[in-house]
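Consider this:
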Amino acid sequence: MQTSGMLLTEDKNGKTTNPKALMNTIMQLRKICNHPFMFNEIEEKLCQHFNYTSSVCLGADLYRASGKFEVLDRILPKLKVTNHRVLLFCQMTSLMTIMEDYFAYKNFTYLRLDGQTKSEERGDLLAKFSEANSDYFIFLLSTRAGGLGLNLQKADTVVIFDSDWNPHQDLQAQDRAHRIGQVNEVRVLRLMTVNSVEEKILAAARYKLNVDEKVIQAGMFNNKSTGNERRQFLQQILLQETEEGDEEEDEVPDDEIINQMIARSEDEYNLFNRMDRERRHAEARMPNRKPRLFELSELPAWLTKDPKEFVNALIDQEALDLFGRGTRQRKEVDYSDSLTEKEWLKSVQ
């Protein structure tokens, strides 16, 4: 995908199927970071590999196939037990559909709002989520449709599943929980796949924010600010930028770090650690226990194959289809004089 912009698969016989050329490679890479089941071909091939009767993967496969979903699976049960409520923002509606399958698997009550939600339904959804004793644990929103103009102060946790190119879109989404009437401490979590295109997207968004701070904010365009104040403010921004760069980490957080991020008190932190221990013990007792993420040995061979092998096989197949298998096989005839006179007379009779 990254080198050729094509989706390559194999059939049951190991033959490379017709490649699917995909436009906008960056968008396709973002889909892979979010969840590989956003490509129907991959999900169908996996179902065939696992001998499922359906062409849709459900259950634990939903989080085992995606690192982001696996992290989410460690976070959401803890927030539910401690009565926290979540705003979960996504960029793609097809991803939201996969998310709904995961919520159904975990029995999480939720509401969904995206660009296809009718204007008269938006008010009803907000009212249901904002009720005093609302049963809805999660509000699933698209960043563009639900990130502006909504008051959702009943939620105290914001999860940005995938970042927007425009950093102000994500900031507006975070502000849905920072509204008048919010009485709880709000935590904002951003999920990102390390060493991927998402890091470049986030870097571009941060660059835009830095330019805004240095040019607009540090400009202090008013009649009261002096040149010395503007210079000090700019130096403060540059120093803060350097400190943030030194603190950045590319490691995947473990359970303890995640608990520190989402816990609002020492009691919650201890509770989350106990839940992790109980989860690990329960998983260890399960028959035919599987790891929380797919391992290479579980996947079809074509998913772990070198892309160059796919391309070479595809070139050979195209040449075979175009030129055929070569010359026809003909019966070999010996025209030499190697026969004796008696053998020749016998063959003539």
Q: What stands out?
A: The two ends are 69 Å apart (CA to CA). The CA atoms of residues 118 and 124 lie 10 Å apart. The mean pLDDT is 79.
